[in-house]
Fold each of these.
Amino acid sequence: MTPRTVPAPAEATRRRTPPVAAGAVRRAVPVAAAVVLLVCVPLGRYAAPHPPERTVAAPWAPPGGEHLLGTDALGRDVLSRVLAGGTHLLTVSLLTAAAAVVCGTALGLTAGWTGGRTAHAVRALCDLLLAVPALVLALVLAVALPGTTAVVVAAVLSGAPLTARIVTAQCAHLRDSGHVLAAVERGERTSAVLVHEVMPALRRLVAADAGLRLVTALQIAAALAVLGLGPQPPTPDWALMLSENLPGAALNPMALLAPAIPLAGCAWMIAAAARAAARTPGETG
Amino acid sequence: MILRLVVRTAALAVAATAVVFAATELLPGDAGQLRTPGRASAQDIARERERLGLDRPAAVRYLDWLYGVVRGDLGRSLSGGRPVAALFAERLPATAVLAAAALAVTALLTAAALGVTYLRGGRGGSAATGLAAVPQPVHAAVLGVVFAGLLGWLPAVSLLPPGASPLTEPEVLVLPALTLALPSAAFATALLRGALGDALRRPHVTDARLRGLPAPLVLRRHVLPFLYVPALQVTALLAGGLVAGTALVETVFGYPGTGQLLVSAVAVRDVPVVQAAALLPAVVLLLGMLTADLAAHRAASAPRVTKGAVTAVPRNVGGGL
């Protein structure tokens, strides 16, 4: 469609709106795919044809024959290592994202509901934590903490403020909406109002945000693993495999591509699920 | 208002130094313990700590360090004992060239992607958000396989001979700069696409079209002014992220810059170097933010542009470390 023929906004919205059921299915697909993936990755270890940490053939054997994806620098089976290598990354990322979302939502609800000085304090805290890029914070923390702990702490410290910001804005907005005011006038306790009136309205926003926090956590965890601050060799790990196998890019490219594809696929699917969750029903965007 | 923005940035810069200092303070066995051999007596450790000034309270050491940073004295490296400032001066040009190259490539790719979005009437697919979500090591690996492995065009390792500059050996820049630029461009596209869509849907744009103005004129006069401030904000975010990302990219490709310095200092727990190397991306990020805020302020006070042009860009895209 060329820009010159863009229809008026109202008409455009009406024409692009699919039937509700189709929209719901469309939104459910990426979310379901992401969930299936998160369940399957930990089970991969049991499907590995060879022990992932043992040398089983010559180094840098090309794909084919007994070793479907070839072998790496130490002659370990690439397929087995890929099947076994996603659990640590995904577990760390999931835990981190959950912690960041819980902390951020709690902060955001407090600030958005109370307003005034509390909101100012929370905003200042968020600005402070966001002044240092997440990857750098993780590296600085890795001086003192074990790599995995550094990833978790850094991703929570730099993820929670982003969640808190959007929840604060939305919560402050909701505080003046009819159903919340009605609940307050009925004399319900603040906690009850927050849980039963405010939280359900924030559900979609927080779900989409959780996906983004998950993506960021995955990126930081992968980066630190590549820098040698995550799982230590010979543990099979997708990100670690990327740095281990870079010297063999010309000898067995599959040793690099095989872990890159599931890692990229996970990130891509989580991002797609977050986008789908953010979409309001009926909108295709 | 301008003064307030500057003061706020200065306060955040001080806050960033506090965050960095506090993070390295977590070190359970401090440097005194680490710098002495495993079987050193308690006395030796105490003497080493005294020599390094670690026996003073944390607050005093922080203020002392901060005073040094302000004067440009970043302390001495624990391994080798060279002044940290000198270590930086050696490596900063290489990182500056890499970051500038990456930013330029990012700008080109983003402009191209936004052009496609514009031709599609302001709607975008999922490629940008997906690509921005993919971890940077994956970009590095795939680019390495394609350009160094399969095609054999570029060196997989970007080592620079001593004394050489990346400007005289531009081929070492390609893989690191592309690795930094690909996710950044995707991130920028995903953030700016919304602003572009909003601008295209504004009534005055429809009106301009219906008046029969040629499309390039509508674009230049009625759409692009709305993208100016968001683009600056995204650039600020990206600049900080790019400098942070050099830590990964320089280490993976063996490019001798400050990012590599940070990672190697983390590995040997060289605290003064880590502190200085961590401040660099934070300062770049804050200065970029200040520039963007000042531009937004100017745009808001200019009579010609309506208030809607100065909406903040939401950071609702995964990525952009």
Amino acid sequence: MNVSKRTLGFALATGLAVGFSTAAMARDTIQIAGSSTVLPFASIVAEEFGNNFPQFNTPVVGSGGSGGGLRQFCQGVGENTIDIANSSRAIRSGELENCQSNGVNEVLEVMFGYDGIVFASRADRGAFALTPAHVFAAAAQQVRVDGELVDNPYTRWSEIDGDLPDQEIVLVIPASNHGTREVFEEKVLHIGCDSYEMEGDACDALRGDGRIIEIAGDYTETLARLDAQSDAVGVFGLSFYDQNRDRLQVATVDGVTPSLETIGSGEYPVSRPLFFYVKGEHLDVIPGLAEYTEFFLNEMVSGFGSPLEDAGLIPLDDEERAEALEQFQARTLVSAE
Amino acid sequence: MTTDTLTIEERSRQRLATIEASLAGRHARERRFRRMGLGAVVTGMGLVLILFISILMRGVPAFWQATFYLDVHFDPEVIQVDEKPVRESGESASAFRERELAWMSRVGLVNWQQIIDEALKAELGEIEARQTRDLRALITSGERHALRDRFIEDPSLLGETVRLKMLASANVDVWLKGNIDRSLPDRQQQLSAQTREWADELYARGVITNAFSTALFLNTDSRSSLASAGLAGAFMGSLFMMLVVIVLSVPIGVASAIYLEEFAPKNRITDLIEININNLAAVPSIVFGLLGAAIFIGYLGLPLSAPLVGGLVLTLMTLPTIIIATRASLRSIPGSIRQAALGIGASRVQTVFHHVLPLALPGILTGSILGVAQALGETAPLLLIGMNAFVANVPGTPLEQSTALPVQIYLWQGNELRNFFEARTSAAIIVLLGLMLSLNALAIWLRKRFETRW
């Protein structure tokens, strides 16, 4: 009986001791979270950073989407909050206000490259040459036919344009937790909407008859959808498409095939800059935070011919890179417009 | 009288007739039920079998990876670094560490890629400068760091030529295993035509072989060198979490079960507690994750992604399972045992700890181990406390950031390079299932070992 009691007490005591000793510990590993588009790039940089700087730990990179990452980022200052938020879109003024109300006043923005968003379908099905107007006609709840606003009548791509394949319309798009969704709306839907001479909420209203499938998870899920529904067209990041070229074929948009070159030159219309946000208050507290940021912007890491380019990032040009680095080194804060 | 007996006989005949008439139907019903039961078992087993076979078919090949055997020359022309610092007498530990770090940084700056390139050129003959990119696509990029680490450990390698094992890149592995359609045109292939030709040539010559890979077990996750991504970090993370779960949930769970079952008065309050424990067992695990994120991280300020927090959350999840299992096993001990102990003058505490508990031990252990095994496979709550992060370190303590095995499976399942990671994910599932099965086997063994019959 005594033995059991003693062991029990000991076990409890160890448990509690472990529990309480933690609060006092200082964190010496950079903690990052956010966009799943940026995640592969940030992870590669984190790993290389750990390999090149033996004095620092390898940063930890979490996901959660751009919105989720910025929400965590703005929770406050302290060791149990993240140091960097990855984002595939610029921070919104609402998020910045939230940051400031929680005491995060020094938000440093770092733009490190571009990403292309592509439409891809199964390699064994018809090839698509899309325009924003096609995509809008396929996705919108209402479209203008002969001057009249009517509920979307299209069920096959060939009904929208005779040159498109005679396939059922099924469009697999990212859900609104993804930064990609915003780009899809801004650079595709809204432009297509303009060409139909429509405006306002009608541009964002998507049809609800099951032909638009929203994916909250990652691109693997979109790919699985295309496996199941052979007619579907999916929205992917360029790098994901690039690594699954054996199963996917990419659609041209406005006649331009997406590639590192056409996106870098701005010829391909659906692209966006990628960012990460650094918490200025943590710069002198968490070891390696400034070094990580500068390492990320190094040409060997994120420039042309770098591991990030191999992974599908469209690098900044020299001027943009110099500017980004300068902005960070001057500790230029993001200000609410 | 005779009429009466006749009626009785008649009645019994009638009854027999009725019985006989219904007998066939009843037998048929029994046969039907048996067949249905058997069918249910066979269907269940069949589904499990299909699952296992499909995982094994996909996962087992991933334990073998395309591997180079190369003569690597540690060329002093390329590796131009001074001697590894040795601690001098009177030098403080921190000063020595600083010198050592500076030396390691210099070693890190050596062009290790060139050393690998040279070793490959020795096999392939001279190549043109524009083919360098094709050449570097052969071997996974992490090998140059492995080479550096090997040198840091043993600087006497300078000038030596050593035969080394190096992992081929993920895409070479995919190509050689035929996981990508080899007949696809160039633009749909991941590797250039030149790299594919070299890979085939070296494979035919035996420079590349399909060797059992320890990378899966010994390395941490990797994004920049996909072929060397492994489970070591996730495994340690899971191990630390299980330690926390065992240290906290088993004593607390067993103690509360013993108190509730053997000592607590039976009244409304204990009834309420009992109902709540049962309800707690039915709470979806994701809710515990939300609770953990709010309390342990938000309020107590524990670190994100730490196995300690994961362990605490899983402890909450496992407690009701252990309490219920322990109570059930205490309840199954016959009252006569308690009465006999009390009858010869033992106190209630003595009765419980000397007589009831040893008999209930097999059941308690089984319940605890199954609860822990369940916690080992849990993913959802861990996603909410940041354990789904990319971590390239093996955690040394429960406070360092880490992932867990089931979360690693989830992460690999989402990796872009599907051709490589489909097999890798299944291999990770096999490792996790193996761990689960051994835990369950341990539970069975413990039960058999401590089982008492009366």
